[in-house]
Amino acid sequence: MTPRPEPSVSTYELPTKEIADADAPSIVPSGRPRSEANKAAEEPETELSQGDFVGRYSVLSCLGRGGMGVVYKAYDPQLDRNVALKLLRRGRGSVHADLRLLREAQTLAKLKHPNVVAVYDAGLTHHGVFIAMELLAGKSLNEWLEATPRTVGEIIEVFRAAGRGLIAAHDAGFVHRDFKPSNVLVEDDGSVRVLDFGLAHSVQDARSDDDLAALGDSDPFERDLGQYPSGSRDVFATQAGTLVGTPAFMAPEQLLGGRGDHRSEQFAFAMSLYVALYDRSPLGGETYEERRATMEQGLRVPEQHLERSANGERVPPRIRQVIQRGLADDPKDRFASMAELLEQLEQPPSRWRLIAIAGFTLLAGFGVGAMVFEKPEEQPCADPSSALEGTWGPADRARVEETFLGHGELVSSAFVQVRDQLDRYATDWVDMYGESCKATFISHQQSELLFDRRMRCLRRRRNRLRQAIDSLVSAETPAVLTQRTIVPFKLPSLDGCADLEQLTVEQSLPDDEELRRRIEQLRERIDEADTLYDAGEFKQGLELAATAAAEARELGYPLALDEALWSLGRLQLAGGSAREAQTTLEEAVLMASEAGDDRNAAAAWTGLVFSLAIQRRFDGAAATELAARAAVARSGDEEMRGWLLNSLGVLYTQQGDAKQGQQYMREALEAKAKALGSDHVDVAISWYNLGSSVVDEDPDAAREAFEHARRIFLVTVGERHPMTLYVTTGLCKVERIRGHAEAAVELCSGALAHFEAYPTSSWWMGQVSFALAEAQWDVGMHEAARENAEKARVHLLTDDPTTAQRIGEWIEDPEGTAGRKQDREVTADAEVGKDEESTEPEALEARDRP
Predict the structure, then answer these.
(1) Which architecture characterizes domain 705-843 according to CATH?
(2) How large is the average pLDDT for residues 493-514?
């Protein structure tokens, strides 16, 4: 983990060991004489020792140092108690600094709140100004964050408490003006206190910083904007226009010389929350000048940067919205008050929405008994839609529509279909949640343990829905958005969350709460990799899935490992190496068996059949087919049966048994239509596969099958989606076989241009490139044909060396008799392989993964 922007070295006070991301840089002016006061500021101060007295207080030990002062543990004999005694640093004993410290004491003395440190006494001795404060046992917020990984909920709870302390200050007429993580203390009992009001400013007080500076005894060097004493890492106000606070947490208006108020406090609060959640600062630069330049240009925090915390946990949308609004450049765009910000941050769920939260938090290690359902004020399960709050609602719908409309007319035409699909999925999710809730808490037909397992399953479906929406709204170009329009149509089926038998035998989660939390975060990353797979973004998906698989091995939980391996294996099949995929899927089979995960075992075996088919590795294929059939039968998944039949169709066609291959393709089509409905995109893929398997012997039948596929794709993902372009390539082959070579060149050229701009797997690129080469040769474009054939050969060298060799022979003698014969064989092989490549990655989707 990278160091937090201001790691603490004290268990009580503001640390001095803070990196540049969090604090003001130490800047020494050039060519400017230094006063005696400044020289003194650089001299080492004398540290008080045990037994020294400050007024009536006896020093016991040093607790810590900050930019303004030193804090000691001391004994108060008058009241017989230990206190925290803060002394102004030696060398800063100006009238201005003394007044500021006394003002801190006066400010704090007015604040009586459980989230603000209590002040007992203040005075002036020969050691300087002192403040006697409540002695607290705990850690600074920085230390608390570093001590152990914290969940988003834990971090938010601490900031809610600190926010209540700031509201108390605002109600008393003050703003802190230097709020940051090191000025928040988390006590050993969990209480939260805001510390160090040394820069607090009274909104009502006529004695402003200007008045204090007018008292004199301040150095001209300290009066310049942006100049700080070289011994300090904090910034102190000396007169109007001088910075007050810590630049890394200061609002733009403060960095640019303005005075902070309650709206500036919101910025500091939101910035601190950002740093705590994401373990980094959104600000660039290491110096005050660089940070000021960032602010002048306008601080922009991309939405996708806020989706996950530093520990990989998803941050709720409402929290992200609070942060973004709190960090608004213009104070008017922030909240009307700190109280309003905190209200948005807290926003307690309705009583029966807690049912959903109960089930979901079980994954993080809490028992069912953590929730109490005694004497409800509302009817249980009365509003199941609230369990989906923050995932898909009017605001999300508007964002998706804005994204589509913003990318032009061709893309915007797909919005209605996408919106309707998301609406349907969300409705089905809510219905299933409501049914499970009622079965558990009203009719009592379902145990709370089973409710918990169904909630885990539904939560993952909800994650995928959220990720589908996020992938759409984050698309930066029309082409990317077009590619991602299929994601809502590929959302995993909810049926698995209703399979009570499978959920009952599912491997239990570990007892260790920390391990449960890590498994939950890991599964979110696996779900994200699966979403990238559906979006066709194989490179990013491969990286994420590989990382997830490595972490799963460390966790030692077989079910999580088999899920990660399955995700990685199908991504390797789609956008990597089929040989690597085979190795991954073989391990996935073993892990799924160990975990008792019948669905993933069936998916992995189906993937192995396909990997052997596209590699033309037929030795042992019969045994693999037998094992795959047994695994699919054991899973009872009709859709997976359809994908297995699809893979067998490819396998048998590649082996030369075209008739049997076509029969399997037809059976696959029937099975998927029965499981998914006749207009599902996966059914369109099977139509495409069937067309590819018969294109050489019956181009008319192939054309009919391709047109079925094209019709479904057009009303779901649109005409520019890669799936539709796969069909275009199939029609290209039909036109060439029917003797319409020019039309074939036009169709294949358009498809290949798209895939060169937005690459798919090497295997698929090889099929399209060679299909175009054949058509180009027929119309006399011989040089271009050989160039594209060579590209196809290179693409296929690793995963399909047999076809690569045949293409090489074709390049040498396209007109020869042998070449013509091989040409037709390669075409047939390419159809089937292509059909499977475009479709099989879809086929390998483990939709019902628990």
Answers:
(1) Alpha Horseshoe (1.25)
(2) 80
Tell which residue, 435, 462, 463, has the closest CA to residue 450. Answer: 435
Whole-number Cα distances in Å, 57 to 62, 78, 135, 392, 841:
13, 9, 13, 60, 74
**Tens of pLDDT, residues 809-844:** 999 888 863 344 444 444 434 333 333 333 333 333
C-beta separation of 51 from 38 below 8 A: no
CB distance 336 to 344 below 8 Å = no
Judge whether 91 and 189 are in contact, CB under 8 Å: no
Please tell me the distance from the alpha carbon of residue 558 to that of residue 569, in angstroms, as a whole number: 16
With beta carbons less than 8 A apart as the criterion, state whether 85 and 180 touch. Answer: no
Name which of 561, 656, 556 is nearest 616 in CA terms. Answer: 656
Q: Are strands 138-140 and 174-175 parallel, antiparallel or unpaired?
A: unpaired
DSSP label at residue 71: E
Other beta carbons within 10 Å of 780: 10
Q: pLDDT tens digit string along 593-651?
A: 988 889 999 999 999 999 999 888 998 899 999 999 999 999 888 999 999 999 999 89
* C-alpha span between 448 and 443 (Å, rounded): 12
What is the rounded distance in angstroms from the CA atom of residue 267 to the CA atom of residue 176? 12
Dig out the tokens for 91 from the structure: 């060398």
Domain extents in the chain: 141-196+233-346, 354-694, 705-843
The band of 802, judged by pLDDT with boundaries at 50, 70 and 90, is confident
Note whether 354-694 and 705-843 share their fold: yes
Rg of the Cα trace of the chain?
Answer: 33
pTM, full prediction: 0.52
- CA distance readout (Å), 150 to 99, 146, 802: 39, 9, 54
pLDDT at position 693:
85
Q: Are 101 and 131 in contact (CB under 8 A)?
A: yes
Number of residues in the chain: 850
Residues 695-707, mean pLDDT to the nearest whole number: 92
Residues in Cβ contact with 783 at an 8 Å cutoff, skipping those fewer than 6 apart = none
List the one residue out of 34, 15, 31 whose CA is nearest residue 23.
15
Assess contact for 753 and 759: CB atoms under 8 A.
no
Q: Helical H runs in 677-816?
A: 681-694, 699-716, 722-737, 741-757, 762-778, 782-796, 801-812
3-class DSSP assignment, residue 54:
strand
Going from the C-alpha of 115 to that of each of 9, 105, 175, 188, 195, the distances in angstroms are 22, 16, 15, 14, 9
Distances (CA, A) of 702 to 670, 672, 825, 835: 17, 19, 17, 12
* 88: β partners: 69
Amino acid at residue number 550: A
Answer whether residue 476 shows pLDDT above 90: no
Instruction: Please name the residue that has the structure tokens 């002394």.
Output: 87
DSSP code per residue over 402-459: HHHHHT-HHHHTTHHHHHHHHHHHHHHHHHHHHHHHHHHHTS--S-HHHHHHHHHHHH
Q: What is the 3-state secondary structure (H, E, C) of 646-676?
A: HHHHHHHHHCCCHHHHHHHHHHHHHHHHHHH
Q: Roughly how many angstroms between the first and final C-alpha of the chain, as a whole number?
A: 30
How far CA 489 is from CA of 210, 223, 756, 835, 845, in Å, comes to 63, 63, 25, 19, 13
Identify the CATH assignment for 354-694 out of 1.25.40.10, 3.90.550.10, 1.10.260.40, 3.40.50.150.
1.25.40.10
Residue of 174, 364, 329 lying closest to 255 (CA atoms)? 329
pLDDT at 289 over 90: no
Class of the domain covering 141-196+233-346: mainly alpha
* pLDDT, tens only, 537-582: 888 999 999 999 999 999 988 999 999 999 999 999 987 788 999 9
The C-alpha angle with vertex 286 and arms to 282 and 290, in degrees rounded to 5, equals: 80
Element (H, E) at 164: helix 152-171
